[in-house]
User: Fold this.
Amino acid sequence: MSVNKKIIILLGVPGSGKGTQARFLVDDWGMAHVSTGDLLRALEVDPNGDDNDKQKLADMKAGKLVADDLIYKLAFAEIERNLALGKSVVLDGAIRSVEQAQKYNEFFIAQGVNDSVLAIELTLSDDLSFKRLIKRKVCADCADIIPYAVDNETKTKCEKCGGKLITRGDDNPTTAQKRIEEQGNAKLQPIVAYYRAGGHLVSVDGSQPILDVDTQVKKILTD
Ligand code: AMP
Assistant:
């Protein structure tokens, strides 16, 4: 499936479904997935990772935003690599402030893709964000996300790869609350306004069932 954009920016509060929707686009349409959260978690366990960079991960563990320079270093290299392969790139959580949005915009201009950018906001209340975060699980091996479902507590094995399902370190109630203060709707709206002002924003109700969100996102990308 060829999508009508080179860069898809998924915006939304934590737990709004950015990672889940990004994975549908990767699995079904072969898009490249750039999740800064995944890149940071990979750095954390990389024995060859730069020590200076690793020190900046303390903020992630505390539920705060990580230093911009580390985000740009990790994300821009991944985006550039995938654009060179001719892929469309879906950005998941990669832009969390207006300052970052501006910096990415400069990067998109330099890459010649600034005319092919679309931001999709997955809307969700802060309340639902909290509820979803403390109930979800992830695969320790393939990073697949198991969104909240009533039977989550009984699930132990990843259906995709057989890996062990765990609760992410920052999905505990204290850190989840902190993340919502730092990355909830109050912080998200100026970023949404930035893309709306540029005419590059579409919103989808992220509280709908996952497959309904998937259908709407894919429709937007092929209309
Ligand atoms: P996520 O997996 O997207 O929920 O991200 C996990 C954590 O990584 C966030 O709570 C932040 O601490 C950090 N992080 C991810 N993306 C960014 C970003 N674009 N800017 C700053 N910090 C980020």
